[in-house]
Amino acid sequence: MFSLPDLFSVAGRTALVTGGATGIGRVCAEALLSAGARVLIASRKAEACEAVAKELSAIGPCEGFGGTVATEQGVTALAEEMRKRTDRLDILVNNAGVNWGAPFETFEWKGWDRVLSVNVTGLFSLTRDLMPLLVKSGSEDRPATIINIGSVMGTITQSESAYSYAASKSAVHHLTRILASEFAGRHVTVNAIAPGPFKTKMTAFTLGKEAGLAAALASVPMRRLGRPEDLAATILYLAGRGGAYTTGAIIPVDGGVSVYAPPPMLSETDP
Questions:
Q1: Catalytic one among 163, 165, 245, 260?
Q2: CA 60 to CA 109: how far, in whole Å?
Q3: Could you tell me the CA-to-CA distances from 189 to 28, 84, 92, 217 in Å, in that order?
Q4: Element (H, E) at 66
Q5: According to DSSP H, which parts of the chain are helical?
Q6: How far apart are CA 34 and CA 240, in angstroms?
Q7: 165 is catalytic
Q8: Nearest Cα to 27, choosing from 208, 195, 189, 170?
Q9: 92 — phi, psi (to 5°)?
Q10: Kind of pairing between the strands at 91-94 and 144-149
Q11: What are the residue boundaries of the structural domains of the chain, listed by start?
Q12: Apex 254 CA angle, 125 and 194, nearest 5
């Protein structure tokens, strides 16, 4: 027998959410706090992160501090700060990410270097450095959990002039499967969520405009943007007991964008 609330509970668990002060990261932090976890959030703007953590402490135990995955030194410092604050880590949400958009003809080298450093290299390096804490916490009945935030842009063949971002998210999806295979036997699950369009600081440049919003809605089969609860439920499934037997999954939370099909080529029509 099982208890329905227990399937999605993370009571007594400790989580780190990178980029947890805004957007999707904040949604993840709020969801985990609401379900009973102690949540640490890190972002490159320390003061802003600390202020958000203080606000979120109304929900549950939350700590915020400065941390970046944009550089090797930043990852080392972030991992060290985590080891100072806790001797166990049950949930790691790799959410920190950046974007870069430019026409193909003028897309710069630094647009690749910057995006892949944060979205792929930094994600991998932080996971590597924190894996001992995750392995220590995991068990057969309740594995530790890594949740990587990918994107529908890592699945569909459409760049929207964000070539490096789309490629980086595809890399995140593949890296998720690789690590899931490597650590399944050590009681650590590794999954990814691939969101479609959500209103965040990163998407405000287009979704904050009437024309951009209309175009986005037209591209989503369900004809709406993602809502915080769409992400929150998925996070709690993967981090809770209900997701303990799921690893290597790339879960689309995109309103059907990733499975949108063009009109049939060979459909019968009246002459």
A1: 165
A2: 42
A3: 17, 24, 10, 33
A4: strand 62-66
A5: 4-7, 23-34, 46-56, 72-85, 109-116, 123-137, 163-183, 204-207, 210-219, 228-239
A6: 12
A7: yes
A8: 195
A9: -120, 120
A10: parallel
A11: 4-252
A12: 10
Contact assessment for residue 65 and residue 50, using Cβ atoms and an 8 Å cutoff: yes
Phi, psi of 133 (to 5 degrees): -70, -35
At 213-252, the pLDDT tens digits run: 888 888 899 999 989 999 999 999 999 999 999 999 999 9
pLDDT digits (tens, 9 = 90+) for 150-190: 999 999 998 889 999 999 999 999 999 999 999 999 999 99
256: left (phi over 0), alpha (psi -120 to 50) or beta: left
Q: What is the pTM of this model?
A: 0.94
Q: How far apart are CA 137 and CA 88, in angstroms?
A: 6
Residue 270: how many CB atoms within 10 A of its CB? 3
Q: What is the CATH number of domain 4-252?
A: 3.40.50.720
Collect all residues with Cβ–Cβ distance below 8 Å to 33 and sequence separation of at least 6.
Answer: 39, 56, 59, 60, 61, 62
Q: Around Cβ 65, how many Cβ atoms within 10 Å? A: 17
- Residue 193 to residues 54, 79, 85, 111, 253, Cα–Cα distance (Å): 27, 23, 27, 24, 7
Give the CB-side neighbour count of residue 115, counting CA atoms within 13 A.
Answer: 21
